[in-house]
Design goal:
The protein has 748 residues and is α+β, with helices and mostly antiparallel strands. The chain is 30% helix and 23% strand. Helix 14 runs antiparallel to helix 15. The radius of gyration is 34 Å and the shape is flat. It starts with 17 loop residues before the first helix and ends in a 20-residue tail after the last helix. InterPro entries: OSBP_sf, Oxysterol-bd, PH-like_dom_sf, PH_domain.
């Protein structure tokens, strides 16, 4: 977003006078003489014409020569560049030379090796700021540089220099671009003269000319076709140029609208987020590892948008397999209405006993008070956010342990995968496993609040007979924070541990998962994969949203493996959240193609649809693997799903069976769910003070209760015993981690 973009009219294009060039020389050299004496770049003083007395009487030709001098030799100096809200204005060394404005970080002349960035003025626009007589901006069409001079005179000098350089590089007009091509004339006169010299008869010459015309006719036709293609291409380029200008105007107007809305809003919750005034320099200059890993694979996948927006896909007569749903307390399970599919497979995940769960959170007791996010995080840029203490206002009433079980919301996909494998169909098994791996991200859409960071030794259980699985997780390490989980279903086990490495970039948070998830079936087939990168954007201003991107590789120990690419969302992407993938056999042959969105659904087509021309031909064979459940009837301000609403539910019967370490018993989280915000903040502060002892406990040899770390690796394995202890109600070995700190737990 631009800063005060609404008061930045197009600047005039003044003629660069000698007086102006003197101002550039004086202002630039007065600020750079002490730090740039040895700089190799020619300073503006070298291009000042010695004769300045006739500055008001130069002819147009003389002025043009001086402008050329400036373009050739270049000018340089220090300007302040806006980086981001964390770093603010930073001094940069700018060099204007040969129509390119380059800028460098200031580390001393001997350390300047290459520019941080470059702007080609030929394709850029320059604007002044109305609100600040020292500021101006340069817009390239893809990014905007906000610059500030030391004085008003300096800005005038730089503006005149930039505009003068732009005039030296006029844009090619559409009429020039669309000028017709000269026709190529082909003559046989030289051939005729040569044949006459050899004494060839006139009739033979005419026959030769006719033969040549016949032979060259196809070539002439090809040239005409190429000429027509050339015309169509230039016409398309002209249309693209027009659309680009329209898009630029739309982006500027939208930025201005958002800025006005934010300025008019009060101190509500939505005020705490705002869009950065310009791209974070760190984000612009760093290389995205995920992109490096997956860019080379772009040609492997077809465009999901072509499938999802295709009229043939939407048509009822396209032959696409429609979906049927079975309702279980208004929760939907998608499966294919295909008579060829075994009924036992279609029923997998739906034939468990009915259990009634709550459908909404309790009504809040108190009115929530807003908190400025920027006031909380401005001092934490670059820090690990898992170690930053925030008020409960930014939390949702769930812990990270409970968030883990949300990956199993669509566990029926694993039940189907098990049934397919029993019937010897390994391909359908891995397709359902892939859909399951994607489905875990569906619950993150619109979830803008942070889960509670578990205490060391905190646990969570999820025993859901209506879904056919039971899940258990425990926080096994404090620094780094590691959560281990283990889940048992019908014919399968799902387990793993996770650790998030987070980075705060000023206007966004990047979360890189560390750890491997493992899925084991009773017949011995095993699949393993790791999660992709997650980023949360617009922390300061604008609409907060999260995105998942990168490549997920699902490795199997039998016949197939799968590769899923989560496409990163762009600013103007109208079809975000795309996921595309392929299933390959041991020889590397693609046997199936997957496509969809991580917040909507996943489909598959047998065979390789990435080849040109095959995508839409196979569209009629596309079948549904998974579809996201409907949102709850009673939405929460945390945007919890139907499944997430039940995760912190605590009935009197369940409370009697839980250990004292279960997340449902955590007081600050319970108070937040009940809307007792003052009490929740007080309890959170108390527990965080208690948690500061966790590192010392870990250093003194503390060990997790239900997991053990495998030798030679960083993975944790469930050792069993939890469900047996629960059956017997024996929790003597579990500490009261949510109570007051006892004297023997306080260390010097």
């Amino acid at each position: 977003m631009t800063i005060n973009s609404n008061d930045m009219p197009p600047a005039p294009a003044p003629v660069l006078s000698a007086d102006t060039r003197i101002k550039i020389r004086n202002s630039v050299m007065s600020r750079t003489s002490s730090t740039r004496e040895d700089h190799q770049i020619m300073c503006v003083s070298n291009i000042i014409n010695s004769n300045n007395n006739s500055q008001h009487h130069h002819s147009r030709e003389q002025q043009q020569v001086k402008i050329n001098d400036i373009v050739g030799d270049g000018i340089s100096g220090i300007l302040c560049k806006w980086v981001n809200y964390g770093k603010g204005w930073r001094s940069r060394w700018f060099v204007l030379q040969d129509g390119v404005l380059s800028y460098y970080k200031i580390h001393g002349p001997d350390k300047i090796l290459e520019p941080v960035g470059e702007v080609h003025l030929k394709v850029s626009s320059v604007r002044e700021s109305r609100s600040d007589d020292k500021r101006f901006s340069i817009f390239t069409g893809t990014k905007r540089l906000h610059l500030r001079a030391e004085s008003r005179e300096d800005r005038i000098a730089w503006m005149e220099a930039l505009q003068a350089v732009k005039e030296m590089f006029p844009r090619i007009s559409n009429s020039e671009l669309m000028a017709p091509l000269d026709n190529v004339a082909v003559s046989t006169e030289k051939l005729r003269q040569r044949l006459l010299e050899e004494g060839v008869s006139e009739s033979a010459i005419q026959d030769s000319e006719q033969i040549m015309r016949n032979e060259f006719a196809p070539l002439q036709n090809q040239l005409m076709l190429l000429k027509q293609k050339h015309w169509r291409l230039t016409d398309t380029l002209r249309q693209l140029e027009t659309e680009k200008v329209d898009l630029e105007n739309t982006v500027v107007d939208e930025s201005q609208r958002q800025l006005n809305e934010v300025g008019a809003s009060g101190g509500s919750r939505h005020d705490k987020y705002s869009e950065s005034a310009s791209e974070s320099e760190d984000e612009n200059e760093r290389v995205d590892a995920a992109d490096d890993d997956t860019d080379e694979e772009d040609n492997t996948f077809f465009d999901t948008k072509d499938f999802l927006s295709s009229s043939s896909f939407k048509s009822s007569g396209s032959g696409f397999r429609t979906s049927s749903f079975s309702s279980d307390d208004n929760e939907l399970y998608a499966f294919e209405a295909d008579d060829s599919v075994d009924p036992s497979i279609r029923a997998a995940g739906t034939n468990f006993p009915y259990v009634k769960h709550r459908k909404k959170l309790p009504d809040p007791v108190e009115k929530e008070k807003g908190v400025s996010l920027w006031s909380m995080i401005k001092d934490n840029i670059g820090k690990d956010l898992t170690k930053v203490c925030l008020p409960v206002y930014f939390n949702e009433p769930l812990s990270s342990l409970q968030k883990c079980v949300e990956d199993l919301e669509y566990s029926y996909l694993l039940d189907r995968a098990y049934e397919w494998g029993k019937r010897g169909n390994s391909l359908m098994r891995i397709l359902n496993v892939a859909a399951f791996a994607v489905s875990g991200y569906a619950s993150t859409e619109g979830r803008n609040c942070k889960p509670f960071n578990p205490l060391l030794g905190e646990t969570y259980e999820a025993d859901y007979p209506d879904k056919g699985f039971r899940f258990f997780s425990e926080k096994v390490s404090h620094h780094p924070m590691v959560v281990a989980c283990h889940c048992e279903g019908t014919g399968w086990r799902f387990y793993g541990d996770s650790n998030l490495k987070s980075k705060f970039w000023g206007r966004s948070i990047q979360l890189d998962p560390v750890g491997v998830l493992t899925l084991e079936f009773d017949d011995g087939e095993v699949f393993q994969w790791s999660k992709v990168t997650t980023s949360i954007y617009n922390l300061i201003l604008g609409k907060l949203y999260c995105d998942h991107y990168g490549t997920m590789r699902i490795e199997g120990n039998h016949n197939y493996s799968c590769k899923l690419k989560f496409k990163e969302q762009s600013i103007i992407d109208r079809n975000p959240h795309q996921v595309q993938g392929i299933v390959q056999d041991r020889s590397g042959k693609t046997v199936a193609t997957l496509f969809g969105k991580w917040d909507e659904s996943m489909h598959y087509v047998k065979g390789d649809c990435s080849s040109k021309g095959k995508g839409h031909e196979s569209l009629s064979e596309a079948r549904l693997l998974w579809k996201r459940s409907k949102p709850p009837k009673f939405p929460t301000r945390y945007n919890l799903t139907r499944f997430a609403i039940r995760l912190n539910e605590l009935t009197p019967e369940l409370k009697e069976k839980l250990p004292p370490t279960d997340s449902r018993l955590r007081p600050d989280q319970r108070c937040l769910e009940n809307g007792e915000y003052e009490m929740a903040n007080a309890e959170k502060l108390r527990l965080e003070q208690r948690q500061r002892q966790a590192r010392k406990m870990q250093e003194r040899g503390w060990k997790p209760q239900w997991f053990v770390k495998d030798k030679g690796s960083d993975t944790h394995r469930y050792i069993g015993g939890y469900w047996e202890a629960r059956e017997q109600g024996k929790w003597e070995s579990c500490p009261d981690i949510f109570g007051q700190i006892s004297s023997d737990q306080i260390f010097d």
